[in-house]
Amino acid sequence: MKAHGRVFVVTGGGSGIGRELVRGLLGRGARVAAVDLNRAALEETARLLQAGERLSLHQLDIADLEAVSALPQQVIDHHKAVDGLINNAGIIQPFVPVVQLDYRTIERVMRVNFYGTLYMTKAFLPHLLARPEAHIVNVSSMGGFLPVPGQTLYGAAKAAVKLFTEGLYAELLQTKVRVTVVFPGAVATGIAAHSGVEIARPEGQESSIKPVPPEQAAREILNGMEKDRFRVLVGPDARLMDLLYRLSPERATRLIQQRMRSLLRR
Fold first, then answer.
1. pLDDT, position 104
2. Is 177 exposed, middle or buried (0-12, 13-18, 19+ CB in 10 A)?
3. CA 35 – CA 10 distance, rounded (Å)
4. DSSP-assigned states of every residue in 96-145
5. What is the pTM of this model?
6. pLDDT > 90: what percent of the chain?
7. DSSP letter string over 187-256?
8. In sequence order, what are the residues at sequence separation of 6 or more whose Cβ sits closer than 8 angstroms to the Cβ of residue 153?
9. How far is CA 84 from the centre of its chain?
10. C-alpha pair distances (Å), 258 with each of 72, 76, 167, 248, 251
């Protein structure tokens, strides 16, 4: 579905990929409702983009079912319709083994990454089904198809997003609502800081994985959406590991463990 003239809701619109998705959609002639937990970040997005009434700001916690349930009408009141939903918001977990994760952290990771996506989709789907054409984009992760040590619960949540989105795609094939699932690899965003996670790397050791800029990630996502793609892999690492994992899941798992083990705090 082409973005021009459409109305999109973007979660995590205050920073990172989310802000670049908002920028990209506005640049393609769309109207956008930007959603984020952080009001100051949303206001900074508005200040930077200077989009006027084509951009509305909505501060809420996507894991709050009551707040999410009220959001569609707020968006429609401002933009008169809603044609697309991009579930981009997400958080990572501390880089520790499962045995060290407390249940409060586990529940938070699952609620934001999976339930937030589920709540937003359920809230907006009836409105999208009523449109002549609509699109849902759910952002999973490379960690949603490939196990990453130290991000096991994050990966489980993103794997749930993956299968939820693929099931939704199948359910909506006979409708006018298209569905895309996105698998970003390493992207240069502030997700660790926004998740309250400190990443400690041994002194003098640099990552061999070069993250793609958020504007490139957003562009690839929007290009995939406009082409109605089923899957979008963002970044060379995601594309490589997708291929390796298909060929040999065990070998790919061992490889990612070797590359990421320096981050794992024990």
1. 97
2. buried
3. 6
4. S-GGG--HHHHHHHHIIIIIHHHHHHHHHHHHHHTSSSEEEEEE--GGGT
5. 0.92
6. 87
7. B-S-HHHHTT------TT---S--PBPHHHHHHHHHHHHHTT-SEEEESHHHHHHHHHHHH-HHHHHHHH
8. 93, 98, 101, 105, 106, 109, 110
9. 14
10. 44, 48, 33, 16, 11
**Residue found under tokens 């990552």:** 207
Give every CB contact of residue 64 below 8 A, 6+ residues apart in sequence: none
| Residue with more model confidence, 143 or 197 | 143
End-to-end Cα distance, the chain: 46
Q: Rounded CA gap, 221 and 175, in Å?
A: 22
Could you tell me the two tokens for 14? 């205050």
Task: Give the separation between CA 137 and CA 121, rounded to whole angstroms.
Answer: 10
Residues 6+ apart with CB under 8 A from 192: 92, 198, 199
**What's the pLDDT at 193?**
58
Look at residue 258 in the predicted model and tell me its pLDDT. 86
| pLDDT of 52 over the 80 cut | yes
Q: Is residue 177 within 8 Å of residue 134, measured between CB atoms?
A: yes
**Mean pLDDT (whole number) for 56-70:** 98
Round to whole Å and give the CA distance between 127 and 80.
Answer: 11
- Mean pLDDT for 245-250 is 95
Write out the two tokens for 111: 């609620």
Domains of the chain (ranges; CATH) run 7-190+206-263 (3.40.50.720)
Using an 8 Å Cβ cutoff, are 13 and 37 in contact?
Answer: no
- Taking the CA atoms of residue 176, residue 6, residue 228 and residue 18 in that order, the dihedral angle to the nearest 10 degrees is -130
Catalytic residues: 154
Put the strands of the sheet holding 177-184 in their side by side order: 55-59, 31-36, 7-11, 84-87, 134-139, 177-184, 231-234
